[in-house]
Amino acid sequence: IFAQSIGGGGGYGGTVSADTAGDNSIALQLGGFGGNGGNGGEVDVTISGAIITHGERAHGVVAQSVGGGGGYGGDAKGKSSNALAIGGLGGNGGDGGDVTVIRTGTITTTGKDSIAIIAQSVGGGGGFGGAGFGRFGADDDGGGPNAIGFNTPGGTKGTGGKVTIIQDGEIETDGDRAHGIIAQAVGGGGGAGGMASLAMGQSAAGSQGGIGDAAAAEATAMSQVWVKGASSYALFGQSATGQGNSGAVDLIAEGNLFAQGADSVAAYAESTASGLKGNISLDLKGQYTIGGGGTGVAAMLVGGQNNTLNNNSLTYAMGLTGSFSFQNEADLAEYLQELVAGGPVAPKKAILESLLDDFSPLSITGTSGNDLVNNQRTASTLGRVIGNIDLGGGINGFHNFANSSMVGLKTIDLGGGTFLNDGLMTNKGIAVVETVDVTGGFTQMATGDFVTDVDLNNQITDALALTGAGDFNGEAPLNFLSIDKLFTEYLLAKGSSMVDSGITPTTLHPAVGFNFLTRVDDGTDLVLYADNPTFLELAQDPNSGTNDPGVFEMAQYLDDVEASSSPDNPMARLINMLRFLPDEASLGAALTRLTPHYAVHAFEMVNRSADIMLETARECTGVPAYSNPDGRCVWGVISPQADYNRDAGAGTTSRDDVLKTMSFGAIGEVNQNWSLGGTIGRTEFDSEIHFNQDLLSTTQGESWQAYALAKYENKNYFVDFAVGGGTGMFDGQRDTHVDQVGYIPGETLEGVYLPELLLEGIGNSVTYTQRTAQFGGSARFGVTQQMGAFYLQPTLQFDARWLRVSGKEEGSVAAFNFDDSSNTYYSATPGLELGTDIALSDIASLRVYGKAGVEFSNKKWEIEGQFAAAEDLPGNPALHLTQEVDSPLYRVGAGLELNGVNGVGMAIRYNGAFGETVKQNAVSASLKVSF
Length: 931
Description:
The chain is built from seven helices and 63 strands. With 931 residues, the chain is mainly beta. It folds into two domains: 335 residues, no CATH class; 337 residues, Lipocalin (Beta Barrel), CATH 2.40.128.130.
């Protein structure tokens, strides 16, 4: 479709070929020679229906009004030095009329240099030709040389008319320099051409014009515009003149703009003149506004006075040759199906990080005008800009509205203006640490988010480097990418001045151990830091659910480890994992699991086994049966089940032990008062430690003990002694589980966060071995008083032991080493035994007895250990883990002993011990032979 009004001459020019030509010849002058003083008339094109063209320079709709000559030119081929002059040679003083194109229906062009719609009003000559349609005007003032001869001879003092295009229907072009919609209002000559690259600086955008004013240019694309070729514009609007004033340019894209070819531009708006420049308005309302690769740009504002770019789209510039990845096979398959189906494709579910190397250098550009970019999400669009921005000079600004997003790559040049953030600002997307340079200031309001990735391993975070003032409110969502070093403090933003208006650092989940804060240093630096509670404070909080002294000791040890070295600390991962737990109860439970309660409990187990052995060692040193006095005696004892339970109450750990002991011994008289002997025995251990019904550790092991025995008797008084010791070995496993820290590993091109992943943990359990040794002695003093059929035996027993425990763990960052901690144990036990011997026959009797005593001892066991990975820390911090010993401990016992022929005896005994937190029950059976 072609509609033209030419004032004062000119018209439609044909095609001229010149195979040979002189160096300075002109192969073609397009549109003829215009007359003088004629005005181009108004051109209105209102039409519907589909248009398809084939071949090069086969345009869809051309509407043109040219004042004073010029017109529409065809093609020129040849060797001339100037292969083409645009629009013919215009006359003088003619004005271009208004040009309006309103059409409904699709347009498809398939060849190079084939424009879907072009509407022109040119004053003073010029018009539409076949070359020289490039990116920028000669300069913002409309002066300077064109790269490809847009200054046609003549064509001066003409005023261009208003140009309006409204296109409702999809546009698709397939060829280099095959543009979508072109609206041009040119004063004083000039116009549009084809066949020149859009590479920056090579050719002018339309024409610079001559003398005369340029009127307004308006274009509305109601539907999608898709230009496939290189150096192509999807939507182009221009008001330009050389000497005079330019008009307003208003472009609206209701649908998508795809210009993904090399050096292509999705939306271009220009108002350039030496005099007053019109305002530019560019509204991008579709889902996508995508510029091309190379020097391609999504949106360009050239010249103008007070310019506004309203963006609702997902807007960026990138070619079609990039490589990228998807988070799963389903997303890849969906993308491939879209490619097969045809039509423009944006890899919306591709991982943004995989695309970073493919974005073009600039996404949005401006020049000398006062440029304001409004980025705003709607119900159906994202309001998302990705890329670098350069708005040039002027008083510029960028407003990122609430619920909208800006992904800065490296630079945001506002020419000293301010970035106002009510939405989400991120540097290269989440999960990539980058510093973005902002030429200008940055103000974040209460609804704004500055997404901050934190890489503790490299001690870096996202940051903004401002040349202007900073003022931060809203939030700084923190996304931790690594946690193997301790958190210190980090620069979030640096500007010429800085105000902290209440920005709040937040985490992906609640973090009970971190208190992230910000402050301003030196009036210029916004600093992220943390004022954290200590682990001991958190553990002692009533909400922690623990009252266990061992847990408090573990918390203190962690505080000491954390304070010893920062940020490099071998326990940093564990410390950070604990601080990232959501609440005091979770932290209390984790600290309880991490505490090696079993290590100090080994002292208690070995000590109780020594008590059992010494009890059985006196099998033949008690009151002799009347019919079979003990002179020499051998025995064997088995204790198949000695249960030990320790429970200090709510919020503490409990111990449940089972000890199985077997021993043998012998003793014999050496004179009237003294008897000497010995005993040896083995004890098996099975120990469990629980917290709130959760199993913390299991320990199995054995110990061997041997004692030398001596007994002194004088009438009804006696003293018996035992001296000896033993060794033990234990193996076990304990729970060291701490919930891992989650992070967002990235986002898609359209800003959907990838599913949360977990950072590496510390290992869920450790295995351990322990070695024990003990040596000591026992002395018991007693007197036996016969009272008729009964006897009464008060005793006083003293025990003293030295015990040593060492251990080693492996399998987790939380593994401990315990190197030869020792304790000395003292106790005194007054007791009383009451019994009777019942004669069953001349050769057999039955002894029945009961006894009770109270044991007084020192109050606690203590062991010292260190994390295996933290043994070389400055200050050598250590865990001092204790376990209280119940004192007094109330002991009770009872037994039945059957003595038979030739001094053979069998016995069943019960022994119990009960304290504030402890209860122990043991049953044993023995066989002895007295002779």
